[in-house]
Amino acid sequence: MSILHHQAIKHALSHFNLTYLQEHNILFGGGTRIALDLDEYRTSIDIDFLCPNKKSYRAVRTQVSSNSLGELVASPLTFLREIRSDRDAVRTFIKSNGCNIKLEFVSFDNYNLQAEVQPKWNVPIIDVNSCFITKLLANADRFREPVKKDIVDLIKMYEAWGEPNNLVWDEVDSHYGSAGYNSLRDALNAIANDPLCLEKTFDVCEINHSESNNIIALATEWNELIEGSENFFTP
Questions:
Q1: What is the number of other CB atoms lying within 10 angstroms of the CB of residue 128?
Q2: CATH 3.30.460 placement within the chain
């Protein structure tokens, strides 16, 4: 885990305009938001702001040019390349405390994402349910890839926050049907049957040996809970 990189992330977040982000429901989410909240168990090297509806993404696009984020920031950031915008996202790279950080504002139109009551790290953040929703959907998209960050994040979320609740599953089902549940089950089952499938993920994410063993044990526990629970979500 790169403490210096996470310090750089926090320093970069201090530049954003909390008032503007709160007023327009532009929320810090993704793996970095989760890793920072859960004792920085892995390295995450990007900043993702999520826009849950058209109005919030419009509030981003009205402020952005090729070299400025306008009122999205309260103090200047150092850009490493031109800011690029399209219908799905605004993307750029910034430098903070000597570290290069990918920065994105992503349109999540028509997703029921909510903010925590209190901001953190000088920005509004998505709440626990929203973390589960976004990660379950991401895992459904990517769980067969060699680097499996999403399922690792979900396992650590399960450890800290328990299982996803019915509100989470209802939202996941409204977008992906049974694929969200099936992908979680399949990913956990794959880890339980072959823990070595996470070796590359542990290496890329700089997860230490003790935490790696903990994640594998938790995956096995959750997998057994799903297999044995008659009341677990059924797609």
A1: 18
A2: 1-126
